[in-house]
Amino acid sequence: MNALFGVDPATYRPHAVHDPSRAYPETNCYADILIELLHARGDEPLAVLGVTVRADFEGDQFSFFKPPPGEVEALFGVDVHEMQPYRALPEQIAEQLAAGRTMAVEMDSYFLPDTAATSYRTEHVKSSVVYAAIDVAGERLRYFHNTGVHDLSGDDYRGVFTPNLLPPYAEIVRFDTGPRLSGDALREAALGFLSDHLARRPERNPFDAFGTHLAATLPSLVDSDPADYHAYAFATVRMAGAGFDLAASYVDWLFDGKAVEAADAFRRIVDGTKTLNFKLARRRPFDAEPAVRALADAWTEAQERLDAVTR
After folding, report:
1. Alpha carbons 28 and 94: distance in angstroms, whole number
2. Nearest 5°: phi and psi at 104?
3. How far apart are CA 249 and CA 125, in angstroms?
4. How many other C-beta atoms lie within 10 A of the C-beta of residue 299?
5. Which of 235, 215, 223, 219 lies closest to 277, judged by CA?
6. Average pLDDT across the chain, whole number
7. Phi/psi of residue 144, each to 5°?
8. What is the helix (H) or strand (E) element at residue 189, kind and residue range?
9. Which of 5, 111, 124, 128 has the fewest beta carbons closer than 10 A?
10. 270-303, pLDDT tens digit by residue?
11. In the chain, which stretches have pLDDT less than 50?
């Protein structure tokens, strides 16, 4: 297969934010595939992660952070927008790849071999992938997912392309719609977008709101099915931890080591969410207030440090 950017699972090295040693080497399916797609192209994906600094608690979950398409296009000339999967998906994929484009599509993790430790052949979970190569006749597919590039074939190939009652959500990814920034020009443009994100931060500390919700939810969570706990943890402490883990790396990159205090405060959030996740996993009653208070204090410090360095 002639793969997009020549990527090969055997030799591909993921971006540093997906290093297994990190607290959250996987973040969310969409952010992960975009990070690796840009990285494979030779761009610095940290530049489009400013959105992570404004994550909020949205009633029952933390923000599912996604780099805004307008920023991706402005910084790298990569246009991502919805398309219509109105015919056989493998044919569309092959056509777009032949034209130097690709597609991002929601697929069923049940047929994605790289999810062997979680949902592969055990449960049906939607997840976004980006296609790197396809061999329609040979029933082989190469795709970006989670922390890298992977191959599937045979029964898995037929499974991911089994027609559904509704067509999947699909996006086209073009690489020819604008300038491609790098170096100082990329940092300057990214800093401008950061100002916009800082202006749109939640007015209330999101961990204060989360603490109120957790206190009300914890009794039923303790008595619930383990699957309910995992779903709650993923949508709350894990999503917050993964997002602010990326925020710390983003701040380090953007300010080239001149905003260490802000990055360190974000990393305290990361550590705190891991600790809280462990406590929740025990599924026993406990006083969550001190842990949540520490998270709220770290968030306040991170934002104040960012304000100071961007004045």
Report:
1. 26
2. -115, 125
3. 29
4. 24
5. 235
6. 96
7. -85, 130
8. helix 183-199
9. 124
10. 999 999 999 888 888 899 999 999 999 999 999 9
11. none
